[in-house]
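Support request, please re-run this one:
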Amino acid sequence: MLTSSTVSRAEAGYAPRPCVVVTGIGAVTPLGLTAEASWQSLLAGRSGIGPITRFDASILPVRIAGEIKDFQPDVFMERKEVRRARCAAHLVVAAVGGECFPASSISSSSLASGLG
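Re-run finished. Output below.
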């Protein structure tokens, strides 16, 4: 029986795991469009759950959800990219590009040079 203590990942034929470092926090949630706003809403006891408004949910057994209100993806992305990307991508770009990346000590030039 092979275990991680007897065989390395490379010896077992697996690729090495990439290193990941978290350098900032970003959040786009039903409670707020930033990590700080979401945190303050949590502390205040607010709920992000409400009636579904993005589509007609009348045929569904559940008509409540945690929708993100007042989100404008074109603040974080070019209009052309907004049209091409799915909603989940808009949220990721806003959380990472809008909060995480600016809060980190990583410059865009050092990131680009690190990627090759």
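The longest helix spans residues 87-103. Residues 28 and 44 are 17 Å apart (CA to CA).
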